[in-house]
Amino acid sequence: MTQIVVYSQNVSCDSTSERLQDKYGDDFSFSNRVHHVIDQLQSKEVDVVILNEIRYADNVTLVINSLESKGFIAKKFANNSSQLTLCNIMAISKKSEWIPKLWKHLWVAKDENDHPCLRDTHSLIEGDRHGRSAGVVYLHHKKSKQQVCILGSHVMPFGDVKYAQQNALLSLNKENSSVPTIIAGDMNRFWNENDTFQEQLKLYNLIEAMPTKLVIPLSANENIIKDNEDVGTFMPWPTDEKIYSMKLYEPMSTSRLDTQLYSHDTSMITCEQVVSKATMLHKPDESEPQKYVNQTRHMLNLRMASDHTAIIGRYMIY
């Protein structure tokens, strides 16, 4: 058996995050925020990195160059050919024992029977006029010769198109019947949709690697550890006014948008540990929150380098 560590995070380059710099200063520029995310990565500790929601060619180049300077091999997977489109970036540590053997750039689609699937050419599902891509890499281990498949992607947040895109991504696990598969990224899984999501996982023979802890760094060597209802993956920016005004008063457990999923076959893969980790732009706010404001959200409010935390999953491949 061989360990693989997967890091996934939405690094927030949507229209809501773009308003941050105007309102709160250059500290909240995408370039500054994403540098904080990448600076906290350790290529000797993480095998695979998946970053979602990167827009504009200059930002994509910035992220790829930054990852490569930290010791990663990085590739982009764009939703379409527009310079404005959102991209996923996947990276493999050069220090990893896992070697990329095959990369695939796929798109969510529907087959001739209207079933969600993945295709290797740009495709659209009704309700999304841009398309949604997935980066896929097949890895082989230098010593054990074991293999694993990793998919990274990000789906739309609402409507039937979201479920179709989710199902298309999950379908990879059925295609990879003999290869352990990990599917990671911002699946926009809302807390009140958990029953539906579990049914989707059952259909495609997957398990969710559910974070049991939220790690909030205080310094290089000290963390605040949260558990139970304080574990989530999303703390909206104040510029996302409607969601922010609602979520500020709710526990973090109502915001588990980001996921890591893996094949439901213990003869091939098991999850040893999974945590949610805040990548900090500033130190957490340890002051007393206003009445009814959730304490964990208060600590993270305008302190993170993204409005999404990272998920770090440790898996054993057999």
What does this structure look like?
The structure is a single chain. The protein is α+β, with helices and mostly antiparallel strands and 318 residues long. It has one domain: Deoxyribonuclease I, Chain A. The protein is built from 8 helices and 15 strands. It has helices at residues 15-24, 30-39, 57-69, 159-170, 172-175, 194-203, 241-247, 295-300; strands at residues 2-10, 48-55, 72-78, 86-93, 98-110, 116-119, 133-141, 147-154, 181-186, 206-208, 213-217, 223-227, 258-263, 269-277, 310-317. The strands form 2 sheets. Strands 3-4-2-1-15-14-11-12 form an 8-stranded mixed β-sheet, with helices on one face. The chain has a 7-stranded mixed β-sheet with strand order 6-5-7-8-9-13-10. Strand 11 and strand 12 (223-227) form a beta hairpin. The protein is globular and about 50 Å long. The mean pLDDT is 96.
Distance, first to last CA: 4 Å
Order of helices and strands: EHHEHEEEEEEHHEHEEEHEEHE
CATH topology: Deoxyribonuclease I, Chain A
Helix/strand structural class:
alpha+beta
Radius of gyration: 18 Å
Number of helices: 8
CATH architecture classification name: 4-Layer Sandwich
CATH superfamily: Endonuclease/exonuclease/phosphatase
Mean pLDDT across every amino acid position: 96
Strand order of the biggest β-sheet: 3-4-2-1-15-14-11-12
The largest sheet, given as strand count, sense and whether it forms a barrel, is: 8 strands, mixed
Helical content (DSSP H or I, runs of 4+): 10-25%
Assess the beta-strand content as a share of residues: 25-35%
CATH class: Alpha Beta
Could you list the spans in which at least 5 consecutive residues all have pLDDT below 50?
Answer: none
Q: Kindly state the number of beta strands.
A: 15
Oligomer: single chain
Shape: globular
